[in-house]
Amino acid sequence: MSWNTVTLDVTDGVARLTVDRPDALNAMNSETLDEIGDAIAEAESEDARVLVLTGAGDDAFIAGADIDYMKEFSTPEALAYAERGQQVVRDILSYPGVTIAAINGYAFGGGCEFALACDLRVASERAVIGQTEIDLGIIPGWGGTQLLQRLVPDETARRLILFGERLDAQDAHERGLVGDLVAHDELYDYVDEMAAELAAKPRHALYAATESLNAFHEGGIESGLNVERRAWSGLFGTHDQREGMAAFVEKRDPDFE
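Predicted structure:
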């Protein structure tokens, strides 16, 4: 299959899904979300035991949702968009194999959330990671409020979301957001070796292992996602959301209420 904003390469049981909008720092619009979902389903149909998620170019993994695209959303439109993003998170979480985020650059907002949904995260030394939504007048809406707390202590998760802090690769590694930190030009060789080793493991055992590991966290994730989705979409139409996103697009400081 071919898509406009993503590519998928499947070789020897490893699928590499690349968000391919480098001119927009791989930011996601509605089309991209749909195509990521389709590509994940295609990787599953190809029996890929390992799914690697990354972004095209040298600057960005996924720089989040396309702010210009969603800045005028009404609350119902925002609610529908939150559901679409959360569905991709569910697709990653439930993938019947191992998922790896190869974080090659900026991973903000929804991009950070998709990385958090993966089983493993490997970061280039150029990676910058954060749930930066607060400065747009909103909160994480694609699982960040739930997924961060699977990796870091509650206090750390609260600080990252409330301050919208951007972590360089070293800080992200030290705080436990990524498992491995490698030189930028070695990222894909490193991830390819990891993926090949995992793909050589017994398929059913891999799936059983990831399913069982995820079950520890999932007792309350659906109710948490429901709360997050309603809270996120309810912020659309407020002065601060409109001002925060307009200021981002116009490259100026916001004037919040």
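Summary: The mean pLDDT is 93.
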